[in-house]
Amino acid sequence: MMREILINLPIESHEVPNLRELVGWDGRHSDYPTLFERCNFWAGLRVEKNNELIAFGYVAGMGLQHGYMEDIIVHPQYQKKGIGQSLVKKLLQESERVGLEIVTLTYDSKHASFYNESGFKPCSGGLWRKKD
């Protein structure tokens, strides 16, 4: 059984990197706990049986009009059950509660329908990346 998705759920520094690695991403262990200090807010979900973190996402920005949503992650064993959309919905509700008027994100095109169903509209933009 799962618990409720919570805003600013207490999370240990190793938990998000571990979850990132479970979905095939770089763990980025050095980002934590700094991320929790710098982002506007985050949301997470744990399973009741062992208190394992199975979903995570956050919104960063200046806390003014605009925020950026990032790292929507759901443990592979719990994907395709509506948890990701519930996580995004919770983050958007919190965005609205704190006064954000615009939330943007970037995503792989294979996830376009997920984000469209979650209320995001495709738009143009740009991406800069540091050269290796």
UniProtKB/TrEMBL annotation:
Annotated protein name in UniProt: GNAT family N-acetyltransferase
Organism annotation: Paenibacillus germinis
Ranges of residues in domain N-acetyltransferase: 6-132
Keywords attached to this entry: Acyltransferase, Transferase
Any matching Pfam family: Acetyltransf_1
PROSITE patterns to which the protein is assigned, alphabetical: GNAT (PS51186)
Record carries keyword ATP-binding: no
InterPro entries reported in the protein's UniProt record: Acyl_CoA_acyltransferase, GNAT_dom, NSI-like
